[in-house]
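I am still getting used to backbone structure tokens and would like to learn alongside you. To get us started, please write out a protein record for me. Start from the sequence, derive the backbone structure tokens from it, and show both lines together. Once you have written the record down, we can walk along the chain together:
***
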Amino acid sequence: MMKALLVGIGGFGSGWYRRLRNQYSELQLAVADTDESKRAKVEEDGVPFYTSVQEAIEKERPDVLLNVTPPHIHKEINHLAFDHRIPVFCEKPIADNYEDAIAMVERAEKENIPFMIAENYRAFPFVRKLRKLIADGEIGSILTIDGVFYRYSEMAHSDKTAILEGLIVHHFDLIRYLTGREIGKVFATYRHSLNIVMELQAGITATFRCSVRSKGKHTDWAGNWRIEGDQGCLELIDNQIHLTKDGATTLIDDFSDVHAPGPFTEFLQSLEEQREPETSAKDYLRNQALAHYCRESITTHQAVDTSASWGYGPMIVRNYYDMEFGPPSVSHHGKGMTRGKRLYSREDFDTPIMFLGYGEIPPGASIGYHGHREDEEVYIILEGTGLMTVNGQTRQVKAGDVILNKPWWKHGLENNSDQPLRTLIFEVLKTPAADK
């Protein structure tokens, strides 16, 4: 039986405690909380209780840790779990500041420790259905997405922008989830309400307006949304979906055809299947980054480029002059020996690029005449001259020439000069989408 340690049973933690006991009977649960007054009720339920997380870890040896402590404590608890290599399921935000969040995610990635943030808005069945309708092409390509959120809260914050990490981070996730695109630029203002204008990949624009001092009708927690496409419009209003296309509007309120597991169920499934969870901390960091950049925009009164948040690794630069050559070889049964350097391989790319290589063909040598079935290949002549043959047609090529070889085309390159012929070559794998 899997063991789970729940850290924190105040606020959200009390709800998680009830949920774990009622819905996850397959788990052996233990609780850690600094409030000694909670011990009696927990132990009355037959659940071990600890005031020390370290002691709970040492005695219970949990398989997973749920961190439902206040945001300023997330860092301490998560790193303690990482010290013991325990997978962590954490309430948002990742940490109470962006810099600590980055460091936390980087550590989990480096040490290969599963780390997921409890994002529940995208798990709502109506949100799943909305995304399915978009993916099915019901409104064509997305042009704009606009959201509003209205509530009234008596809670006063010394930093009124605290709602960015505490609330709006959910809606950033919804924009990314529904569109499948990243947010590249934000401009935010905050006076009586928070107003954000965003530029997304693929030319999509988005807006979001939030007020937590609204005297009018409240929205539900996911907010209300209008998504305009080039073939129709989808609206999410009070958790119901309205699809407008071809002049007619259809109400969609049956969501039984979508799979909508809760966040913790998704976490347990990801552990069992040994894959990255849907709202992994690595992905969720992009939501917290947007909160960080909105705060910067509010402070500076300027639009802020957020593209640095799409990946927190270093810039990837490889120099083909500095890299070592592989062993000389006969290329595709050509003449003589050629040599090359594999700059990037298939695993380096997120798109269907097979490789990018630098090659040198000595005088008199050649890349033999061959083809690549469904793949496309591009030759870029950097230095020298030679004879390029494509589908039986031969012509002289020189530095600056770029030769395209489409699927099933035959091609070969011969150095007919007295100087080395230097090239860059990359090959792209055909994908199913290319058939459409």
